[in-house]
Amino acid sequence: MREIRYQIIAEAIRRRVVDGEFAGEHVLPSESELSEQYHASRVTVRRSLEVLRAEHLVESRQGFGWLVASNPLRQELGRLGTIEGQLAAAGLTSERRVLSFGFVSSPERVGILLDESTVLEVERLHLAGGEPFARVIVWCPESLGAELSRADVERSSFLDQLGVDLEGATQTIGADVASARDAEVLGIAEGSPVLVAERITRARGGRPVLVSRHVFPAHRTQFVVDLPIDDTASLPSGLRLVD
Q1: Which residue from 55, 12, 15 is spatially nearest to 34, judged by alpha carbons?
Q2: Where in the chain do CATH 3.40.1410.10 domains reside?
Q3: I need a labelling partner for 67 at 20 to 30 A (CA). Which of 57, 147, 198, 234 fits?
Q4: CB-based burial of residue 68 (10 Å sphere; 0-12 exposed, 13-18 middle, 19+ buried)?
């Protein structure tokens, strides 16, 4: 039986997906690029991609285009924990790489929150299953960071090494687009959607001792909250309007 053009293209793209050609960003070429590659109309290419979507091999997301299908990594918001702990609970291997380590003048917001003019600033890359998952920048008061080395923060979380009793943290999550640095570190396109979490960790008594910024590729991340029944609640928990 003669194969139709869109089926031939679907099979060609299927082989590329299975062979791991798109393993880096997981992003396929645009429909226009695929049209040029296969000398076919965009209508034909889209029909080919729809075949692969039905097979759960690819998916489309606004801001990204067509991607290799994958299950997003879920993170629970109910307790203070580490990225490594969350990934281990999901059965994934994790790795942290320290990209920069040093004492710097406090960025304005960090200086206000920590009431410090000089802070230890650490930039890290976290990998899940060998692939970039989060870019994290942590700021710590100079007095608490003075005893820490680059090897210390590469080995384990600040939460395990601060030497103070922790009371909890406030985490704020919002949508943004990837900066040039985010794109470089995470292996995604500049301007693509990301989720950004700012976490302010407090010692007992309420004093902030850590400020951190976590940047996650939006197509690989879900934050999950379990909500008890509350008949009086009519809005999502934690909802806040942004000016």
Answers
A1: 12
A2: 73-224
A3: 198
A4: buried
Q: What is the CA radius of gyration of the chain?
A: 22
Nearest to 202, CA basis, from 157, 163, 173, 170? 170
Residue 191: CB partners within 8 Å, gap ≥ 6? 177, 178, 183
Match 């997906």 to its residue by tokens: 17
Q: CATH topology for 5-68?
A: Arc Repressor Mutant, subunit A (1.10.10)
213 vs 150: CA distance, rounded Å: 18
Q: Beta-carbon neighbour count of residue 128 at 10 Å?
A: 20
168-182 pLDDT tens trace: 888 888 889 999 999
Tokens of 242: 């942004």
| Phi/psi of residue 131, nearest 5 degrees | -115, 145
Which tokens sit at 227? 């909500």
Collect all residues with Cβ–Cβ distance below 8 Å to 11 and sequence separation of at least 6: 3
List the single range of 46-50, 144-148, 157-161, 214-218 with lowest mean pLDDT: 157-161
pTM above 0.85, yes or no: no
Angle 42-54/5-18 helices, nearest 10 degrees? Answer: 60
Helix (H) or strand (E) segment spanning residue 53: helix 42-54
